[in-house]
Amino acid sequence: MPGLIGKKIGMTSVFSADGRNVPCTVIEVGPCVVTQVKTTEKDGYEAIQLGFEEEKEKHLTQPEIGHFRKAGVTPKRHLAEFKGFGDSYALGDTIAVDIFTEADFVDVIGTSKGKGYQGVVKRHGFGGVGQSTHGQHNRLRAPGSVGACSYPAKVFKGMRMAGQTGNERVTVQNLQVIKVIPEHNLIMIKGSIPGSKGSIVLIEK
Q: Which of 4, 118, 184, 196 is least crowded, fewest Cβ atoms below 10 Å from its Cβ?
């Protein structure tokens, strides 16, 4: 699906036509530059590679520098591929936020906030406290039984336990575009999206 690379700015709220207060996320989208065009004959599929945000050459490897020079563009910090653009763009073309319109529905892909090692209450939403009477001592946020002893005598794969939480790729689908501000390369999307302020996201139609 066609899309662009953006940076999460933060959250705000706007009033709809019927007076409702709608929470939304502000994203700086593009402008993105076409750094590679992939074709079925050469690559086996059709897509375009887009670059976002300027980068200094000293932070790149020689193959990366050659890649950008071949495309005739300045070095970019973030790259991503998108399908669905067809053959309407060539190397060096710039794609701006105006490919989106108000009332469009988009999917947003980002990396969720990392929360470190967490217990089952925070990681999986377990009830936690339970009965505080009947002699319960210090097991208020414990996971409880993870399996029987004699049979099946093992812990089944996928058992919800404590562990690393967050910092993973998350896709949120069918979010409505509330407003597009082309002069500032901004787009406002209804609801929240994964990631912290300043994190990179992909927005697909």
A: 184
